[in-house]
Protein: N-acetyltransferase domain-containing protein
Amino acid sequence: MQVRRISAEERLSHSFPLQAYAFEQSPAPAANTDRWRAYLPYNEGNRTLVAEDGDTALAAATAIPMRQNVRGQMLAMAGIAGVATHPLARRQGHVRTLLITLLGEMREEGHSVSVLYPFRPSFYARFGYVTLPKRRTVSFAPADLGDLNRADLPGEVTWERMSAGYDTYREFMLRLARERHGLALFPDYRDARLRDDDERWLVTARLDGTVIGAAAYKVTGYNGELEVDDLLVTTPLGRLLLLRFFARHVDQVSRVVAGLPADELPELWGTDLQVTVEGHTTIPTGNAPMARVLSIQALAGLTVGPGRVTVEIVDDPFLEGAFTLDGRGGALEVTAGGESTAALSAAGLSALVYGVLDPEELPLRGLGAVPADAARELRALFPRLVPHVVADF
Ligand SMILES: CC(C)(COP(=O)(O)OP(=O)(O)OC[C@H]1O[C@@H](n2cnc3c(N)ncnc32)[C@H](O)[C@@H]1OP(=O)(O)O)[C@@H](O)C(=O)NCCC(=O)NCCS
Structure:
């Protein structure tokens, strides 16, 4: 068995068939080749590795070179996707070998964190990933927003097909990503699918020409739902302008359903607004995203709190060793070495960096040994945060 990076064209024969078998209805009624060929440009800069025996691909895994805001810094992030093994080659360690090689190569190229959507979180927990919050959805009847119809609001709203408004949307996402912890961005070649598929309307709120809110959405039918992928705003006015736009669908759709960060409180958006907020995780198709740190040195400069501690990272091919983490200047300083007072697994460190677990939880979850003194410093360094990944892959 050898591991090899395949060329773009080889995806048609080596990785797409394995993925199609794993994730789609099969055998397909018609040959997939034309559909796959059309999909190639959106994979252009991805790194796909296969484990092969002679000419036969036994397993495949892909990394998308993405970017992600982690505590205020845009970091190069490896988005892992398309992990699949030939049905006769499963449980033989192929994906373990592929993933370690792939993450190592992405790390060499400067990707300091990684995100994926697991089929089963425990599978990726053994590779150092920790669960991040899943986006919530809010749903409400547009009739509940009737008050907004008469509201006198500054600013304006633009409505267009995604193919027409894509550049505006992308620019807004790039700006938003610089402000929001956890937000992940596809590379241009992959994101362009949103424009080319053109399966969304785009509504944009602006004040003095600056975009302050945007929603990509579709309508499922007359008296159906208006489904917004993610309601993304930078100001309360941006949200109100979008909500007023939705209110004007009162005799067209019965519900508005919108994706939201896990810490949003839509019951506060208006008076007499009846909302249902939901979050579901399901194995294998509806899991929360997971993330891990690939390089601790690359975290230098993150916006952190005033703590200082030396930790030993254990049992990980990418992070092993002792590191002193110092946040007393407001930006994280990382120095190799020191007398460690806590031991963390890769997932334990990742949980703290992303802000999703308290240090006290780590020993209880088997993610480290953290005495009370070290927990206090780690808590000061890495205050809790709610990452909102947005990108789904
Ligand atoms: C899930 C899948 C990718 C695993 O690939 P594989 O080559 O069989 O995995 P490996 O043999 O390298 O197993 C790696 C580790 O995970 C464990 N593992 C394998 N399948 C598992 C599963 N379904 N659930 C939990 N653990 C699993 C193995 O025991 C092994 O543990 P170890 O290294 O600590 O001993 C493969 O079975 C598959 O293609 N399934 C269908 C498609 C799919 O679900 N893809 C995942 C997309 S995110």
Remarks:
- The mean pLDDT is 96.
